[in-house]
From TrEMBL, chain A:
<protein>
    <submittedName>
        <fullName>ABC transporter permease</fullName>
    </submittedName>
</protein>
<dbReference type="GO" id="GO:0005886">
    <property type="term" value="C:plasma membrane"/>
</dbReference>
<feature type="domain" description="ABC transmembrane type-1">
    <location>
        <begin position="66"/>
        <end position="277"/>
    </location>
</feature>
<feature type="transmembrane region" description="Helical">
    <location>
        <begin position="102"/>
        <end position="123"/>
    </location>
</feature>
<keyword id="KW-0472">Membrane</keyword>
<keyword id="KW-1133">Transmembrane helix</keyword>
<feature type="transmembrane region" description="Helical">
    <location>
        <begin position="259"/>
        <end position="281"/>
    </location>
</feature>
<feature type="transmembrane region" description="Helical">
    <location>
        <begin position="151"/>
        <end position="175"/>
    </location>
</feature>
<dbReference type="GO" id="GO:0055085">
    <property type="term" value="P:transmembrane transport"/>
</dbReference>
Automatic annotation (TrEMBL), chain B:
<keyword id="KW-1133">Transmembrane helix</keyword>
<keyword id="KW-0472">Membrane</keyword>
<comment type="similarity">
    <text>Belongs to the binding-protein-dependent transport system permease family. MalFG subfamily.</text>
</comment>
<dbReference type="GO" id="GO:0055085">
    <property type="term" value="P:transmembrane transport"/>
</dbReference>
<feature type="domain" description="ABC transmembrane type-1">
    <location>
        <begin position="71"/>
        <end position="261"/>
    </location>
</feature>
<keyword id="KW-0812">Transmembrane</keyword>
<dbReference type="GO" id="GO:0005886">
    <property type="term" value="C:plasma membrane"/>
</dbReference>
<dbReference type="InterPro" id="IPR000515">
    <property type="entry name" value="MetI-like"/>
</dbReference>
<feature type="transmembrane region" description="Helical">
    <location>
        <begin position="139"/>
        <end position="162"/>
    </location>
</feature>
């Protein structure tokens, strides 16, 4: 789309900028400010420079939380993306079934995150939960409060339950944008189902999948409420992810300096991963389609 | 022969789809099941459906103002956030979709980075900022805090929808003598109606489900339902029945909203870009 060059468009941006500045720039500057100071009380503070950053980067418990976080994010992406594509291919395309399935699939996305935690807390309890009870009935000593593996797998399962819908809905909308003529051409060529998926459907899904993977990565990296309610980060630290470590540090222990330094590192990691991923995908698309992207 | 394999294929698809729906609905069903039982029945024998159906858990929530005000508070700040985000995002998205200006690309990218900011990062500064300006424990505080991720999201979605409207329409309207505000409200907004609906859906969704900021910025007056629910954990154990009933009631507004936008949701999830 050819846009008109007009700097007066800034006036249209201004109200938004003022609000976002209030809710993003001022708090972020506060964080930066704290991250380079040692605050004893409101009147006594020292400049520490990069000390907190060095300390945080060398903190073994935070390194462990970071590793767990990456492990978790990659696991759920590896499950949710293929599963979401599969569900999207299965979803009915027209009629009342299409609407009904659409609403049901969207349902988990609209549940407050702490309630998601509560749902799974109830569902997985050994005494009153259907899943916990069933697993015990078939002879598996399922217990998320003592077995780190059970707790971790349950959180992964909960996340798959909660968020696969997002990938599925994104792909579903991508699939609906494919003109019927493409499929007719494929039928005339006697293309296999795999060939149709690989050469017609998947290329059309690239755009929505980039959005989906980015959103999922971002949100899984910030996951807080669900494990907080379900396992409280335990047993031990096995399901303590970055947000929870940070929230404990900032509000319970009130170590504002280290917490601020940690916040900035945390934020930068997310930005870096998103940027690398986005650039990689965009370059891949350019290589594959000579003459620019067709998105 | 071909007919048989085709039927088998359709059947397999339907079965797989049904299996996923069962997976989605089973935990929710269990919550509903719990909410209709008394605590003694919940903690007694495990039953697949309520043996003695009771509405007592729901009655408790609807008669106790400290419970139902949690829902009211949540709805108030969600609606405020939707109104604020929409009001500032509409002109901004229009500017991004129609004009190029100094720093537009950088600004847009910076805007999107705000969506990536973990709420935990802003916990402490928000608390102090809103406390200092006297907004702590008000609805507007939570509404403003949620703008952090909702405004970028709204601009992003709306920009996609607006860019699919040909700019010849703008030019024709201006030649016909429409002023900009009149054109925007009378001509342009009706054209992106579905985009606005979808955006409102997303704004609702992300503001309604967020817990960390909403809980930190409120104490009593504007307490969201999410933090009221923690009251079910008492010294004598967890009040499972009430917790389940409260959980079921948090799902209801979401169902209502998704029902209204069901025809546009598929396109909306692609952010208007397909």
């Amino acid at each position: 789309m050819n846009k008109v060059r007009n700097n007066r468009a800034w006036w249209l941006i201004l109200p938004m900028l003022a609000l976002v500045a209030f809710s993003a720039i001022i708090p972020l500057m506060t964080v930066v400010n704290y991250s380079v100071q040692d605050v004893f009380d409101p009147h006594t503070r020292f400049f520490t420079g990069t000390e907190w950053f060095v300390q945080m980067l060398n903190d073994p418990s935070l390194q462990a939380a970071l590793l767990r976080q990456f492990g978790f994010s990659l696991t759920i992406l590896a499950i949710e993306v293929p599963l979401g594509i599969g569900i999207a291919l299965l979803m009915p395309k027209r009629g009342w079934q299409a609407s009904a399935v659409l609403i049901l699939v969207t349902l988990p996305l609209l549940i407050p995150w702490n309630v998601v935690g509560s749902i799974w807390q109830i569902f997985t309890r050994g005494d009153i939960g259907l899943m916990g009870w069933s697993l015990r009935e078939v002879g598996y000593a399922y217990n998320i409060t003592s077995s780190p593996l059970d707790a971790w797998l349950t959180i992964v399962l909960m996340d798959v339950w909660h968020w696969t819908s997002l990938i599925a809905l994104l792909c579903y909308s991508g699939l609906r944008a494919i003109p019927e003529a493409y499929y007719q051409a494929a039928r005339i060529d006697r293309a296999s189902r795999w060939a149709i998926f690989r050469y017609i459907q998947l290329p059309k899904l690239t755009n929505v999948l980039v959005i989906g993977v980015l959103l999922r990565f971002m949100h899984s990296f910030m996951i807080y409420a669900e494990p907080f309610v379900l396992t409280g980060g335990g047993p031990g630290n096995s399901t303590t992810f970055l947000s929870q470590s940070l929230a404990v540090m900032a509000t319970a222990q009130f170590d504002v300096g280290p917490a601020a330094a940690f916040s900035l590192i945390y934020f930068l990691i997310i930005l870096l991963v998103c940027w690398v991923f986005y650039t990689l995908i965009m370059n891949m698309q350019k290589d594959r389609v000579p003459g620019g992207d067709h998105g | 022969m071909a007919e048989v394999t085709r039927k088998g294929f359709v059947l397999r698809r339907t079965l797989l789809m049904a299996a996923y729906l069962v997976f989605v609905l089973l935990p929710i069903y269990w919550l509903v099941n719990m909410s209709l039982q008394s605590n003694s029945e919940i903690l007694g024998e495990l039953t697949l459906w309520p043996q003695q159906l009771t509405w007592a858990n729901y009655a408790r929530i609807f008669t106790d103002s400290s419970w139902y005000m949690g829902y009211v508070n949540s709805i108030i700040y969600v609606l405020m956030n939707m109104a604020i985000s929409m009001a500032v995002a509409l002109p901004a998205a229009y500017a991004f979709s129609r004009y190029s200006f100094i720093g537009d690309k950088h600004l847009f990218f910076w805007l999107l980075t705000n969506m990536m900011a973990p709420p935990a990062v802003f916990l402490l500064p928000y608390f102090q900022l809103y406390y200092t300006v006297g907004l702590f424990d008000t609805h507007i505080a939570v509404a403003l805090a949620h703008c952090l991720f909702n405004i970028p999201l709204a601009v992003w979605i709306l920009e996609g929808f607006m860019s699919s409207v040909p700019r010849e329409i703008d030019e024709t309207a201006f030649i016909d003598g429409y002023s900009f505000p009149r054109f925007f409200v009378r001509v342009f907004l009706p054209l992106i109606r579905s985009g606005i609906g979808v955006t409102l859906f997303f704004l609702f969704m992300f503001s309604w489900v967020e817990l960390l900021l909403a809980r930190t910025l409120t104490s009593t007056e504007a307490q969201p339902i999410a933090s009221v629910m923690t009251r079910t954990q008492t010294a004598s154990g967890i009040d499972w029945g009430t917790l389940a009933a409260a959980g079921v009631l948090t799902i209801v507004p979401g169902i209502l909203v998704v029902f209204f936008v069901r025809h546009h949701i598929a396109r909306g999830f692609a952010l208007g870009r397909t």
